[in-house]
Amino acid sequence: MGMVNTHNDQRYIKSNTVSMPHELMHTLGATDKYDLSTGGPMFPDGYAEPDKTPLHPQRFAEIMGGHIPVNESSSQMPGSLAQTVVGKTTAEEINWDN
Predict the structure, then answer these.
(1) Sign of the C-alpha dihedral computed for residues 15, 91, 32 and 66 taken in this order
(2) pLDDT tens, 24-35?
(3) Is 60 inside any structural domain?
């Protein structure tokens, strides 16, 4: 059982569509892949494309990383669930065979 706090405001619909699946993934065994002190995704598991060259900017957010890395020190919320992926480590944690 879990609880998700979302915002009941039209301005937050897009962020809710990302945060709700993120929280659901916890119930399946996925761990957070972002730095609690900065909120930014941790490299490499919090990156959707950790092998991309150049590394930044990323095009997607890893669902448990929560944000799209723009450069080494900043990131942005994905605009929709379509801008997220399930990374290798998260897939392994939830026993999801790709």
Answers:
(1) negative
(2) 999 999 999 999
(3) yes
